[in-house]
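Dear colleagues,

As part of the handover before I leave the project, I'm documenting each prediction I ran so the next person doesn't have to rerun anything. This entry is a single chain, and its sequence is reproduced below.
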Amino acid sequence: MFSKYTRSRRHPFLNSLLSIAAVVTLVSANSNGSGCTHANGVVTCNLGSLNSAATATATVVMTPNQVGTITNTVGVAASESDPNTANNSVTKSAVVTASSLQIVNNYAINQTTGAQIVPGETDIGNHCDDCTTLVTLPFAYTLYDRTFTTATITSNGIIEFTGSTARFSNGCLPDTDPALEYTILGYFDDLRTDAANIPGLGPSGIFTSVTGTAPNRVFNVEWRSTFFNNNAQAINFEIRLFENQPRFDVIYAQIDQFGSSATVGVQRTATTGFTQYECDQGGLTPGLQLSFIGSDQLFLSGLVIDSRGAGIPGVTVNLSGTQTASVVTDASGFYTFNNLTPGGLYTITPTREGFTFTPPNAGFENLRNSQTANFTGTQQQQTGFTISGRVANTLGEGIAGAAVALSGTQTATATTDANGSYSFANLAASGNYTVTPALANFTFTPPSRTFNSLSGNQTADFTGTLTLVTPVGTNVSVEFAGDTINYSQVTAAGVTTANPISPATAGTPPAGYTLLQVPGIDLATTASVSGIITVCFVD
C-alpha cells in the first residue's frame, strides 16, 4: 500500500512542508520546483516563485509500516506575508488495515536445485577482509514489518538493513547481536573479497545488477569471495531481492566448503522472529536455490531466564487458546511458537519440576503483531521428596518382606508390604541416594538404583529371583519358599534359580516331565546334575 500526497498552490509561496508520520517509509518526493529534501521526519519541497493564481505541485509517496491510523500534516510558507494564514496547512489521516498492508512475520523456505545466479554487473567497491558497504536500493524493499531504501552489504555474506557490522564470526539463530536485526544471512562466514583473481570467477568482490522492469524488478547481489581460513577455496553465491514481493532468494554456484562453518537464514530480532536453514552443518551444494517466502502468520517467542539472566534450558512452554502447542527451551532458554493466526487468543505457560516462574503465564488477546513473553524461573529449595517403588518377581507378583536399604545423604530401611511396595519420604533436595533391596535366597535386578542431585520424586522398581546354592551329593534337596527341588545326583556344585511362570507362557514341558502345578517354576542351575529331578510344592 502506497500513500500519495499531492499539494497544489495558487499563492506566491515558496516552500511546501509535509510532516510525515514515524510509522511510514518515504519512497519518493518531487515537485515542479527545484526539488525536495527530507530530514527529521519533514519533507521540504521548494516550489519556486509563483505568480498570482499560478499552480505548483509537490508529490510525496510513502509506504506504511504498520496497521492503524496514520496522520500527516502538509503546510506552506513563503518569503512574503500572507493575508490569510488559515488555509496554509491541512492534516489528513489514513486508516491502514491488515488486508491493505503486507506485513511479514515469518518466512517459509522453498528449496530447488539446478538454479543459476544472475551475474552482478556493478562493483560496489567492497574489496577487503571484514568490511561493509552502504548501498542505495533500486526500489523500496520490505523485510518483515519494515520497508527500507538502503542496506549495508558486508564482505562476510550478509545484508543488514538496520545494522552495520563487519563481524566475521557466525552464530546460530537467534543471534542476540543488535547489529544483526533485520538481516539476511546468505552465507554468514569469515570471507574475503580482496583476491586479485579467483580461478573461474575473476577478481573477487561484491557485484550487483537489476533485472526486470518496475514494479517487478529484482535486485541481485553477487559475492565472489574466498575463505579466510583457506584462500585457495572459493564461494560464489547471490541474494536476490524481489520488488513488491515478500520474498528473497539465495542461490549458490561455487561453494567449496559447503556451509560447514556458515549460517544461512533471516532474522528480525533474537526474540521476535527468525528462520534458519542451516548453521555449521554443511549440505549446501552448487545449483541450490533457497526461496524465502514471507507470511503474515505471527510469532510468540521469548526467553526463560534465572535471576542472574542466564537461560534455563529444558523448560516446557505450553501454548493454549486459538492454537495449542508445546515446545522446550533450548540451551539459551529461548522458545518460539511460529505460524500463529492473527486475531487469535493465546496463553503461554512455562513449567518445569522444581521451578516457579514469574509471571506464571502471559496472555495475548486479539493478536495483531508478533510479541515477546519472557519469564524468570526460580528453583525451589524443597525437602520432602520421595523415593518409592516395588519389588516383584518376573510375573509382576509382589515379593513381601524384602529389606530395602537407603544410603547416601540420608539413610533408612524399609520392608516391602504384601504388594511388594516400599517408600522413603521427606528426603532432602539435591541429595545423593542409593536404594538396595535384599532378601534371603533372592538376587535382584538391578542390584541397586542411584539418584544424584535429587530434584523430584523418583521411582525405583526391582525384580527378584529365587537363588540357592546346590551342593555335591546324592538325593540333594534345595528348599525354596514353599518349594522343594530334589536332584538325584549332583557331581559339581552350582547355583539353582527358580522363576515363577504363568500357565499361559509355560508351554509344553520336555519329554518325561510333567507340569505338576500352576503357576509353575522355571528352573535353572549351574550345578552338574544327573538322574531324576523332582519338584514338590507345599501349600
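The chain has a mean pLDDT of 85. The CA atoms of residues 30 and 464 lie 90 Å apart.

All the best with the project,
I.
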